[in-house]
Amino acid sequence: MTGKQDIALRVNGAQVKAQVEPRTSLLDFLREDLGLTGTHAGCEHGVCGACTVLLDGEAVRSCLMLAVQAHGVEIATIEGEAERAGELSVIQDAFCECHGLQCGYCTPAMILTARALLNRNPTPDRAEIRDAISANLCRCTGYLQIIEAIELAAGKLTQSRTKDGPGR
Amino acid sequence: MKPISFDYVRARSADHAFTVLNGEPDAQLIAGGQTLVPLLNMRLARPSVLVDIGHLDELAGISVGDSALVIGATTKQLAVETNDLVRKHCPLLHKVMPWIGHRPTRARGTIGGSLAVADPAAEIPLTAVVLEATIHAHHNGKELKFAAGDFFIGGLATKLPDGACITAISLPLSPGQRTGCGFAEVSTRRSDFAIASAAVRLTFDRDNVCTQAALGIGAIAGRPRRLEEIAGRLRGQKLSEAEIDKALLGLEDSLSAQGHLHASPDYCRRAAVSLLRRALNEACLEAAAR
Known about the structure:
Low-confidence stretches of chain A: none
Order of helices and strands of chain A: EEHEEEHHHH
Radius of gyration of chain B: 19 Å
Mean pLDDT of chain B: 96
Radius of gyration of chain A: 16 Å
Oligomer: heterodimer
Strand order of the largest sheet of chain B: 4-5-10-6-7
Mean pLDDT of chain A: 95
Largest sheet of chain B: 5 strands, antiparallel
Strand content of chain A: 5-15%
Largest sheet of chain A: 5 strands, mixed
Strand content of chain B: 25-35%
Shape of chain A: globular
Number of helices of chain B: 13
């Protein structure tokens, strides 16, 4: 049984079947087995948030999960954020517009955290945005522009909903 | 920062989990993994086999019985935080949930895990002790019950025997009317481990006399402490600021605090009393509004 375990899960909408060692983290599985390197390894003990992915729509720390625990779940990584290759989602675009990133290391996690927030609370106030990103460390920006980016994205997504425009 | 190799069993049922747990030396349970996985990554935990109970419906769930709110051990903290039964019947627990770690850790971490780890600074053990909850466990085919006040020994230790598994926590139902609760905590940064914390639940009669009081302090010592003597001073009184001051007299000197890198024992004691006062005021205001 120290041998590999079979797991089946959905990643960015696609069915994935794999064999993993029990000790492999979800983070390492995504990066190394699936080649989805947008999810970053920061601390590997759950304090920085750079490894954030969405599990059944909720932001979780992939360094704090074993891949075997992800059997049967739906994972969304940053690679799945934009609808089509070569495009940017509204949230990603807002991060560009507001200069919400510098080195980019925390950014995939910030964007996914924003996505989970806006899915459950489409009109967050600043306090709620700050609360949502308080689980993610950024060493570059000082956070303000990240907050502005999320505010901008929230506004755009709400607008596009009411105008029947394209909006993801 | 990678774990040792270990075996893995995805339990088919609670009984299956218990069988594997007791059948293998160095077997360990994993539910949310928010404490265990970092320990595995740092090789501080070196199990022979991990028994995964995180997906088992039979160990999760929230329900209300005659006199208690029952929460299954593998219920995710986020599920407890957003549950209407918890909000209605155990408002103190509802109040402390957002203070626990971060939302992403609450999305995976379980209520049973927090009790089993028994971190001195943890909010759920403090709440369990203050509300006189009962912790249910399974061990060698028997069902065990622990009063929360006895369960936590200190220094991350509990009375849970080797090979046992916490199955649920039951909390007495809040009286509801004219009842308020308060919680306050101080930490270095948002979501860091508490340096000092205080939890309170008060019930009053129509004349604003306090009829029931439950309060306690966490984080400053090895385990949370229910303050029965202070509660006794509050019962039967109308809780003006002067009455509260009188009740808290001498408390600071009587507390023992360990102190650490971020806070001296003196600071911990002062902070604990200050937070208790805040929590008492919050509970009074909340009760008045109901």
